[in-house]
Amino acid sequence: MSTASATGRAFRLTTIGPPRLLAGLDRTSRLDAAAHRLVHPVPRGLPLRELAALAESVDLRGRGGAAFPFARKLAAVHRSARRTGRDPVVLVNATEGEPASSKDKALLAHVPHLVLNGAVLAVKALGARELVIGVTDDGLAARSLRLAVAETRLRDRARVVRLPERFVTGEGGALVRGVNGETPIPPGQKVRAADSGVDRLPTLLSNAETFAQLAVLAELGADGYRAAGTPREPGTVLLTVTLPDGGHMVVETPAGVPLADVLRHCGTDAGQGVIVGGYHGACLTPAQAARVTVSREAMAAAGGALGAGIVVPLPRDTCPLGEIARVAGYMGAESAGQCGPCRLGLPAIARSVAALAAGTAGDEAVAAVRRGSATVRGRGACKHPDGTTRFLLSALRAFDDDVAAHLDRGGCGRPTRRFLPVHGEEPEEAETSPHRLAIDWSRCAGHGLCRHLLPDLVRLDEFGYPVIAGAAVPARLLRDAVQAAEMCPALALSVRNA
Question: Which of 103, 207, 231, 321 could form a disulfide linkage to 64, CB 3.0–4.6 angstroms apart?
Fold first, then answer.
C-alpha cells in the first residue's frame, strides 16, 4: 500500500479485510488534516463515564504489550486526580523500543491525526492539562507527528518529547522518567503513572496504537467495532511482520485470522519457527505457527504472546542459536543495570547462550541458561529479566533440534546471517580482533579459572583442562581475554596476535 523508512528499516503497509486504522491510504501516502477529515469524521467529545463504558464494552486493551484494560486506566487516573485535586496528563507511548516493531512508526508516519484524535478524546474526558507524545527518533514518523500537531489546535497543549532509542525506554516508568528530564530507565520500584507520572501528576499512559483504536471505536461505536475480530477480542490488530529481506510489513488484520494466512499474505511462511511478541515474547515451532490465530488468547494457549504484534519468521538459511545468541547479548546490554538480575544475571545467561551457539560448551550451557533464568525470575527491579528469560527458554524449546546439533556436532552448519534486528550492533567486520588465546601446556595446572572468566571461549575437558575454540577472539571479548590471561594462577594463558 505504501513505503516509508524508519530508523533505517523499510516498511510497507497492507491490510487483510477492510482497513480501519489504515483507511484512506489507498489514495495517498499520508493523511494530513484535510484528508483525515474526509476519511474520519471529527470525533464527538465523550464524558469520562461514557468513554470508559465504551472502552469496557469491547474490552479495549493496551497495544504496547501488556494488554492492560484501557477503561481501568481511565478510572484510575480519574480517581487519582480527584483525590489530589490536580489536573492529569495524557502520555502517548510511541517510543517503540522493540527492534522488530514498526507499527507505531507507521501510524505516526501515515495517519498521525488518528492517534491524536484518540488522545484528545482522553484529554477532554479527563480534563487533562497537557498531551505528551514520547518518540525515539527524528525520522519520518516524528516529523509527520510534529506536523500533525501543528495542523491542529493542540500546539499550546501538546508537546513531542524525543528520548534515546533503547529497548527499556518504552517501559512505562522509564518513559515517564525520560519525559521528566531524568535518565529514561525503569525507576527500580513500582510507581503507577496514574498516581505520579509526568511532572508527578496523575498520568494516563498508553501506546500509540491504543489511542488510534480508541478513535476508531468512538467513530464506529461498540456494535460497529465488533463487526471485525472475534467475540472475545473484537476489532483489528496491527502486526509488524519481518520479511525474508529484513524489511517490515505492517499489517492490519481482524483478530482471529490464522497466523499462517497473515504470513502467506505477506509472501512468507513460518520458516524454522516464528518469534511472536518480540524479545519479551516467545518462539513458536512451525507446527504451532500453523495452528495458532492472531489473538491474545490463542497465542497464550500456544505458549506464545501477541504482545505488541511482532511476528518474525526465522529463515531456513540462518543458524537459530546464533541469532538467539545475538538477541541474548543485546538484551543483556539493554538492561537498566540497576539490579543484580539485569546487571549480572542477564549477561551471564547471554554468555551461556553464546557458548552453546559457538559449539564451545556442552549440556552445562543449557543447564546454566535454565538455572540462571530461574534465579532472576521475579527478582528484577522491572520485568526486563522475566521477559528476556521467558523468550530465551522458549527459543531453546522451539529450536531443540538445533540445540541438539550444537551439542553433538558443535554447530548446525549454517552461518548466522544477523537476520534478527538488533539496535547498535557493530558491523560484521568489526566483530573479531586479530588475537587468539594460547595455552602454555608446560605451565597449565588445570585450575579452571579461565573457564569461569571466559565462558564464551573456553570449556573444560573431562579432566578439567581447558579446551579453546580456534576462532579469533571477538572484539567485544578482547578486554576480558586479556584480564583472564593476567589472572591465570600458573601464567599459562596468553593472548597473541593471530
Answer: 207
pLDDT in tens, 131-162: 999 999 778 899 999 999 999 877 788 999 99
DSSP assignment, residue 245? T
State how far the Cα of 465 lies from the Cα of 484, in Å rounded to an integer: 15
Calculate the dihedral angle through the C-alpha atoms of 470, 472, 474, 479, rounding to the nearest 10 degrees: 100
d(CA 177, CA 196): 11
Helix/strand number for the chain, H first, E second: 19, 15
Better pLDDT: 479 or 340: 340
Helices 384-398 and 346-358, packing angle to 10 deg: 20
> Can you tell me which residue has the cell 518462539?
283
Q: Which residue from 378, 382, 353 is spatially nearest to 366, judged by alpha carbons?
A: 353
Query: Which candidate, 176, 383, 167, 392, places its Cα nearest to that of 275?
Result: 392
Q: How far is CA 249 from the centre of its chain?
A: 16
Q: How far apart are CA 261 and CA 16, in angstroms?
A: 9
Quickly state the pLDDT bin for 476 (edges 50, 70, 90): low
Contacts of 478 (CB under 8 A, 6+ apart): 433, 435, 495
Q: How far apart are CA 213 and CA 227, in angstroms?
A: 14
H or E stretch including 325?
helix 320-333
Question: Cβ(304)–Cβ(276) under 8 Å?
Answer: yes
Grid cell digits, residue 80: 487519582
- Quick one: which of 165, 112, 133 has its CA closest to 4? 112
Q: Determine the Cα–Cα distance for residues 308 and 131; give it in Å rounded to an integer.
A: 22
Query: Which uninterrupted H or E stretch holds 310?
Result: strand 310-313
Give yes or no for a contact between 333 and 384, defined as CB atoms under 8 angstroms apart.
no
pTM value is 0.85
Share of the chain above pLDDT 90, in %: 61
d(CA 136, CA 159) in angstroms, rounded, equals 14
Do residues 195 and 202 lie in contact, with contact meaning Cβ atoms separated by under 8 Å?
A: yes
φ and ψ at residue 495, rounded to 5 degrees: -115, 120
Q: Which residues lie closer than 8 Å to 326 by C-beta, 6 or more apart? A: 416, 418, 420, 422, 425
CA distances 40 to 96, 154, 220, Å, are 25, 18, 10
Residue in 351, 358, 365, 281 with CA at minimum distance from that of residue 319: 358
Q: Is the four-CA dihedral 161, 111, 30, 268 of positive or negative sign?
A: positive
DSSP annotation of 427 reads P
